[in-house]
Amino acid sequence: MFTYQTTDQKEARRLRIAQFNGRPATVRSAGATVTGRVRSIVEGKAGVGATWVITIIPDEPAAPKPRLAPRMHIAAEDYL
Q: Where are the domains of the chain?
């Protein structure tokens, strides 16, 4: 799990919408890029401005699918 804290209201809203719709979200923080499903968004009102703590479960990278060999028909040489 990846925990991310932000004070940007627009970014918190974007991530909350992604959580509601079940879409993956991408967050860039300190040179790292994390893409995954938003698990929770917690608002903390301590201090001057509001902050949001977002928990993201990273998606595992998809394994490349093996390419299938072209299928040859029995009578393929008749068409060449």
A: 2-58
